[in-house]
Amino acid sequence: MKVGVIAVTRGGQRLAVDLTAALDDATLLPHGKVGRILAENWLKFDGFVCIMAAGIVVRAIAPLLKDKKHDPCLVVLDEKGRHAVSLLSGHLGGGNELARRVATTTNGEAVITTASDTLGLAALDLWAAEQHLAAAGEDMTKACALLVNQGKLSVYSEVKVKSLPDGLVLVADQAQADLLVSSKISSGRGIVFHPRNLVVGVGCNRNTPAPEFVQALNELFNDLGLSPLAVRNLASIDRKKDEPGLLTFAGDRWPVDFFSKDEINRVPGLDISPAAQKAVGAIGVAEPSALLSARTNILLSRKRKWQNITMAVAEASFTLSAPGRAQ
């Protein structure tokens, strides 16, 4: 984690120098107007330690805030090092962990105000991120609030469960669950976390525009009752590594695995596509590339054809487990 350290008083500056030396990958930022320094460095660091009054920090960061998925974490520290307050992005941004590291360094106390931590419950948003679970809309916020209010969440999972963190209880009846773990589209009842366990194999004609890929995926997933949030990645033949429409479609949302025709031709049990053999010398593209990427023999959807595109969906192995480290 890249951490910027800021102080305003002489005593704070002395502590800032010591803290910067003690923390890995920490940088002492120049003395000056706090709002300007934070604005100039907001996107350059994963977190900040501000050695000053909390009110100064709150006023300085107000115009910079976006949301907890994008904002860096921020810890406010008094110049004696007694209290390290996790002020921003405590879970996903790592603010709570940074506050504990700072407090350990200064022999002070970490002040953590997130409800799950104070109640000894799982940091649900952090756990979901570690497990590669995605939630639509306000489902994550609703789940976190429900966990805090009830002290537990009943979970029905359509993927394998090895273990769950404290406060999450596995149930065998979906009707009794507060939380459903499923790659399917939500029916509007209850809260759904989507495991990223689907691989979409894609074949296409040269220079197919990106909007056609979007339309094809939406049609396919609507027909299958699947959520695009459950897509882990795309897959195709290496001849498509420079396909503009495919790469634009994938964008920053999904990585793309590419396979050679020799790798594809070794996939057993699939029907041979004359069109693919003629165009790229492979038995197919969508189905075998999806299976290769997912490392499975399970196809949730065989090849679906559009004018310029083919798509298939494979399901990769996925297992839920409790956190591997302390939260």
Tell me the layout of helices and strands:
Blueprint lengths: L2 E5 L2 H13 L3 E3 L5 H8 L5 E5 L2 H8 L11 E5 L5 E6 L6 H12 L2 E3 L3 H4 L5 H7 L2 E3 L3 H12 L2 E5 L2 E2 L6 E3 L8 E3 L9 E5 L2 E7 L5 H15 L6 E7 L6 H7 L5 E4 L1 H5 L8 H7 L5 H9 L4 E7 L3 E7 L3 E2 L7
Parallel strand pairs: 1-2, 1-3, 3-4, 5-6, 8-10, 8-11, 9-18, 11-12, 13-14, 14-15
Antiparallel strand pairs: 4-5, 7-12, 13-17, 16-17
Structure description:
This protein has 327 residues and is an alpha/beta fold. The chain has 3 domains: 3-113, Rossmann fold (3-Layer(aba) Sandwich); 124-195, Udp-n-acetylmuramoylalanyl-d-glutamate--2,6- Diaminopimelate Ligase, Chain: A, domain 1 (3-Layer(aba) Sandwich); 198-315, CobE/GbiG C-terminal domain (Nucleotidyltransferase, domain 5, 2-Layer Sandwich). It contains 12 helices and 18 strands. The chain starts with a strand and ends in a 7-residue tail after the last strand. The model has no long low-confidence stretch (mean pLDDT 92).
> Helix and strand succession?
EHEHEHEEHEHHEHEEEEEEHEHEHHHEEE
CATH topology of the largest domain: Nucleotidyltransferase, domain 5
**Would you report the number of β strands?**
18
CA radius of gyration is 24 Å
Apparent shape: elongated
On the 0-100 scale, what is the average pLDDT? 92
**What helical percentage do the residues reach?**
25-40%
Main sheet: strand order:
2-1-3-4-5-6
The stretches of 5 or more residues where confidence is low (pLDDT under 50) are none
CATH architecture of the largest domain: 2-Layer Sandwich
Strand content: 25-35%
Number of domains: 3
| Helix vs. strand class | alpha/beta
CATH class of the largest domain: Alpha Beta
Total helices: the number is: 12
Per CATH, the superfamily of the largest domain is CobE/GbiG C-terminal domain
